[in-house]
Design brief:
heterodimer; A: 82 residues; alpha+beta; Phenol Hydroxylase P2 Protein; 4-stranded antiparallel β-sheet; 3-stranded antiparallel β-sheet; 3 helices; 7 strands; 20% helix; B: 220 residues; 2,3-Dihydroxybiphenyl 1,2-Dioxygenase, domain 1; 2 domains; 4-stranded mixed β-sheet; 5 helices; 10 strands; globular
Chain lengths: 82, 220
């Protein structure tokens, strides 16, 4: 199980929306955070979000200990199970 | 401005009284801050050197940067920039850096002055661009927009506007970040991955019960 937390502010909404397009990914809410989780990898395409540098590279609020970020570059954010 | 999660201590301070820097170029400094940017001179002190040290005579002068906050300079008579050490390849008159120091570190320390609107930001851009210190960068960081230049002393100056107000949940997130950071730097080998893992735990502990009304706007 991989779980990614993203703060719910207007600029971050596309990150959660794009993540949710994968049927294997569920997006819930915990207080003011999106909780993005999947049994396998979570992959978010940067271009699909429309995010530019500042938002894209600061959109991750937390990654639960059973997952880790394996890619976070101009193309994608990828969180995989440890 | 919001009430921060700072425990039981009330928050009494009222912004920046002044921030002070040395200058070896008072003429350029006055041109930049007073004549180009239009920051009024609001205070100055002419003082004979005193004390047990070999303290030079000096002038301490202040410019208003809005909100009654001030930027101040010390000009010491008969003192040259070498008093601060050998000239560096980069940096400013207070901090000099050799070629081996990474650029991100050289550029890290700066003063950012707030403006309320895009119109105001562009007005300062016009003033700087018509001067000897044109804007070097104009960047939209998506939630803020800033212009940058270096003053005659080499100090990096930013003027910035918010493109939307800071939300209450960003205050929560900032506090969770700091609590996670302190936990991580208290352990061996702090890393960004460990920070995000610790922060995930704090989100699970605290975010579910958080309400934005826990952090009301104070009465101004």
């Amino acid at each position: 199980m991989t779980t990614l937390f993203v703060l719910d502010v207007p600029e971050n909404t596309p990150v959660a929306e794009v993540a949710a397009q994968d049927p294997a990914v569920t997006v819930g809410q915990l207080g003011p955070y999106f909780v993005i989780s999947a049994d396998g990898a979570i992959v978010v395409d940067r271009r699909a979000t429309g995010c530019r540098h500042a938002v894209w590279y600061s959109c991750v609020a937390g990654v639960a200990r059973d997952g880790r970020i394996t890619q976070h570059d101009k193309d994608a954010l990828r969180v995989e199970a440890v | 401005m919001r009430v921060q999660d700072s425990g039981a201590r009330d928050h009494r301070v009222r912004g920046v009284d002044h921030v002070a820097f040395p200058t070896f170029d008072p003429a350029g400094t006055v041109r930049f801050y007073r004549d180009v940017l239009g920051f009024p001179v609001v205070h100055s002190i002419c003082a004979a050197g005193w004390g047990p040290e070999n303290h030079p005579d000096f002038v301490h002068f202040f410019f208003d940067i809005g909100n009654d906050d001030r930027i101040a300079f010390f000009y010491y008579f008969d003192v040259t920039p070498e008093v601060g050490g050998a000239a560096g390849e980069r940096g400013d008159v207070y901090a000099r850096f050799g070629a081996d120091v990474p650029e991100y570190f050289v550029r890290s320390r700066h003063l950012a002055i707030h403006v309320d609107s895009e119109e105001d930001l562009l007005e300062y851009r016009r003033r700087l661009d018509a001067s000897s210190w044109p804007v070097e960068m104009q960047i939209r960081h998506e939630t803020i927009e800033s212009i940058y230049t270096h003053d005659p002393n080499g100090y990096m100056v930013e003027l910035t506007r918010a493109m939307r107000p800071v939300t209450p949940q960003e205050d929560l997130d900032a506090n969770l970040t700091i609590d996670a950071l302190l936990d991580v730097v208290g352990q061996p080998e702090p890393s960004f991955g460990k920070l995000l893992a610790r922060k995930a735990e704090l989100i699970v502990e605290r975010a579910g019960t958080w309400r934005s009304t826990d952090h009301p706007e104070p009465v101004q």
